[in-house]
Design goal:
Largest sheet: none
Mean pLDDT: 91
Oligomer: single chain
Radius of gyration: 16 Å
Order of helices and strands: HHHHHHH
CATH class: Mainly Alpha
CATH topology: Heme Oxygenase, Chain A
Strand content: under 5%
CATH architecture: Up-down Bundle
Low-confidence stretches: none
């Protein structure tokens, strides 16, 4: 099997959804845009991390841990006086390949975080106020490489991984569609 076959297959399977999500997130060019982004991504990521707690763990990931952003997201929300988001539906993770498919989406988000962290900083959100989760993700390049090398040890053609990755993107899309800058209200 070609070393990057699983990664390539997952990238191809999720490409159209990735484009939709990138369009929904857009450019963080105002404080309102950042608050909407934070509300949507917090609803998605906190829900996904909760789903992972009970998920079957792939043997290929023994000794590796995903990045847990829930505590940082909760701090970011508190910094900006935003309420914790409601949890959203996540895909069922009934097999280890399905877990790997969800993790492909979650860990891959660290690549986009490198762009978003700079845009957030331009709006005054930093690693110590409001954008902790982005700063932590943007600083996480080596674990992505390690994850991808492990991902390529999954049996080729795992439909469960593909399905879970696509459904995970669908959940992220729904979370981002549920927020708009004009809908964000701070806690009283």
């Amino acid at each position: 099997m070609h070393q990057s076959a699983n990664r390539s297959r997952l990238r191809d399977a999720t490409h159209s959804r990735h484009v939709i999500l990138d369009t929904l997130v857009g450019r963080i060019d105002s404080a309102a845009a950042y608050l909407a982004y934070l509300s949507g991504i917090a609803a998605f990521r906190i829900s996904a991390e909760q789903a992972l707690r009970a998920a079957p763990w792939p043997d290929i990931l023994q000794g590796w841990q995903p990045q847990h952003l829930t505590p940082l997201l909760m701090q970011d929300l508190a910094d900006l006086a935003l309420p914790p988001p409601p949890l959203i539906a996540m895909p069922p993770l009934e097999t280890a390949p399905a877990t790997a498919g969800m993790l492909y989406v979650l860990e891959g988000s660290s690549l986009g975080a490198r762009i978003l962290v700079r845009q957030a900083a331009d709006q005054g959100f930093t690693a110590t106020h409001g954008a902790r989760h982005l700063a932590a993700q943007a600083d996480r390049h080596s674990p992505w490489k390690d994850f991808v090398s492990r991902l390529d040890r999954l049996p080729a053609g795992s439909c469960a991984a593909d399905r879970a990755a696509m459904q995970t993107f669908d959940s992220a899309i729904l979370a981002m569609q549920s927020v708009a800058p004009s809908q964000i209200q701070k806690k009283p």
